[in-house]
Structures are given as C-alpha cells and as structure tokens.
Write a structure and sequence with these properties.
14% strand; alpha/beta; 12 helices; single chain; Aspartate Aminotransferase, domain 2; 11 strands; Aspartate Aminotransferase, domain 1; four-stranded antiparallel β-sheet; 367 residues; 2 domains; seven-stranded mixed β-sheet
Length: 367
C-alpha cells in the first residue's frame, strides 16, 4: 500500500537511525506544535492557560479515541507507559495477575510493588512469547488479570490480542502497546487497559502517553492511584476529597503539559494521515531488505519472522554483539544492544540507503 509523501516529508532523522524501538525522532509537525503551545503560554492572557489546556487535552483524547475505536470518555492522558501501568496495578481489584518475567521492566515493577503491598498476587511465567495457548494453560480460577505487551521488546513478536481476549474471557486484559501503537494494525479494543507512551514508534516525543479503559475496566478497577484532576468538581478547592469521575479521567493524577498533549495529538493525526496499513507495509518491506543483507552476511536472525512489528534482532556468529554495534556505529548506523543481541528497528521513514549502510558495515566487519 503506498504511503503519503506528506507523511514521509515530516521526518529528517539521520539516514542510519535504526533505533525506533528505543526513541522515535519526532516529526516537524510535532516540533511546531510544541513551539506553538509554549509560545502561547509564554504570553498568556486572562483565559489563555485554560483555553490551551482544554484545546490540546481534547485534541489528544479525541485522536487516540479515533485510532482505538472508542470515545474520549474512555481515554486518559498519561506522562508515560510506566505511570499508567503502575495505576493499572494499584487500581486492580484483588486477585491473581498473570505476567511473564520476560516483559520489559515497566510491566514487571508495578505488579511486583502491588503484590508487595498485598493488593494482588502475581503468577510469574518464564520468559517467552505470551501465546494464547501458553496463557490458557497458565490461567487459574483465581486469575483476574492478564498483563502482556502487544509487541515484545526483544524480538518484535506481535501478540495475538484478539485470541488473548478470547482466552482471557471475562478477566481483565492489560496491554502495554508502546512497541506497536501507531505502526501495527491491532484490535486495540480487545484490551481492557491499553497503555502507551508516545516517544517510540508514535514519534510524539517524551512526556506523551495515554491509557484507554474499557467499560469493564471502569466498572471493576478503583482509581486508588489518582489525583484531584480525576475527581468530580475538581475546581472546587474545599479541602475535601471528591468522588472520582465515572470516566477514564478518574485515573488522572494531575494536569499534564498542554504542549505534550498537543504533541501527542499531532503525532496520532499524522498516523491517521498515512494510515496504519501503509505504515506497517512500508516497515515490513524495509525489514525484508535488511533480512536479505543479514542472511548474506551469515547472521542468525533471532527475532520472529512472522507476527512481527518493526524489530529485527540478530547475532553474528563468532562476533560479539558489542563489536557488531561498534562496526555499525562506524558507518553512522544507530541500533541497540539487548541481551547480547543486536536490535535493529526500522520505521516507515527509513530509507533504502540505510540498508546499504548496514551491508557496508557488516562487510567491513567480516572481511
């Protein structure tokens, strides 16, 4: 599927930047939004602050809601994935939570802390893909929550969210979507709690994020870890703790930066402009080109080739992964070292010339 030139022209990251699974360089539009909002706040009038907050918060919620097939009442803005996952862990009703120890730490620490406080009990699964069969075999009558990543940060394995929803049944399904939101076409509505930061594939910059809550989550999860901006009559400063709102906003801890909200909104709107399918197809095309180069160099691809997002992990036999990273860096190629593996992650804006840079670096390394 062709991709919009208007979308591609928004990005000017270095040619060899292949580390989107860590940080995605923001677009020109995101930078302009940040500058515009900050300039407004630099010269405020009597109503500027309230107007800017309301406008950018609404834009961000509406944009996320459109992509997730829901409405703004089911969306709450968050500063990052970790904060939202801590809220999910602390707001969950008592019961057993199923989590893999192979998850990224942001999906381990919150459940560990909640268990330490006696809020939940955690059933830790060994590392490995959270397939529907594996999850089904691990469920017990006490299991009330299943927490997974939409995309594995090590291998790029893309979880089958629709099948996991079916397996989980009436249990809550918590999904960390940061390694896939904006670049893979997923049934996000399968999640009861979908959380994501915007600084990676969404390319919204740091301090941008959100959580999307299903009706089931709103009914069962109590907003224990929340603040005054998640309460009814938040602007009445009467010294009382007010009841939480009936919407996802109940999870709000405080006002976030309106600039960050605007950056998130702009980034999601760009994804809508290009289309998820077009972005995913472009990334897959580029990964196939990288695979050909890696196969020719004798590399062992250790990430999945089917059900994958934008991550391609590999090792080069008889060469330390650190040496491979150094060789790539010498050709101005940016990647990440994860578990003694080289993790390469490409985006829709990655040029075919980046494939040639990797090819050149590996040829020099292997002689």
């Amino acid at each position: 599927m062709p991709i919009s030139p208007e979308y591609l022209n928004q990005f000017t990251e270095p040619l060899g930047y292949l580390d989107f699974a860590r940080v995605g360089p923001p677009s020109h539009a995101v930078l302009r939004t940040s500058s515009t909002v900050l300039h407004e706040l630099a010269c405020p009038g009597p109503t500027t602050v309230s107007q800017v907050q309301q406008r950018e918060f609404a834009r961000a919620k509406d944009a996320v809601a459109r992509v997730c097939g829901t409405d703004a009442d089911h969306v709450v803005l968050e500063p990052n994935t970790s904060t939202a996952l801590f809220q999910a862990a602390f707001n969950t009703a008592r019961g057993e939570v199923l989590v893999s120890t192979g998850e990224f730490p942001s999906n381990i620490y919150p459940w560990h802390s909640a268990e330490a406080l006696g809020l939940v009990s955690v059933r830790w699964l060994p590392p490995g893909p959270m397939t529907p069969d594996r999850v089904a075999a691990a469920l017990t009558p006490e299991t009330s929550v299943v927490s997974v990543s939409a995309v594995d940060f090590r291998t790029g394995y893309r979880a089958d969210l629709a099948a996991l929803r079916e397996v989980a049944g009436d249990r809550l399904l918590v999904v960390d979507g940061i390694q896939g939101f904006g670049v893979v076409d997923e049934p996000w509505e399968a999640a009861d709690v979908l959380v994501s930061g915007g600084q990676k594939w969404l390319r919204a910059g740091h301090g941008t994020g959100f959580a999307v809550l299903s009706d089931r989550a709103l009914e069962r999860m109590q907003p224990v870890l929340s603040g005054w901006t998640g309460a009814r009559d938040a602007d009445e400063f009467d010294g009382r703790v007010h009841a939480p709102l009936p919407t996802a906003q109940a999870w709000s801890l405080t006002h976030l930066s309106p600039a960050s909200a605007g950056m998130l909104a702009t980034a999601v709107e760009l994804v809508e402009l290009a289309g998820i399918r077009a972005i995913a197809d472009r990334i897959e095309q580029r990964l196939q080109e990288f695979e050909q180069v890696l196969d020719s160099a004798g590399a062992e691809i250790v990430s999945v080739r089917d059900r994958r997002a934008g991550i391609l992990a590999f090792v080069l036999p008889d060469r330390p992964a650190s040496a491979v990273v150094e060789a790539l860096a010498a050709e101005d190629v940016t990647v990440t070292l994860r578990d003694s593996r080289v993790r390469l992650s490409a985006h829709a804006s990655t040029s075919p010339d980046a494939v040639q840079l990797v090819e050149s670096a590996l040829k020099k390394l292997t002689g």
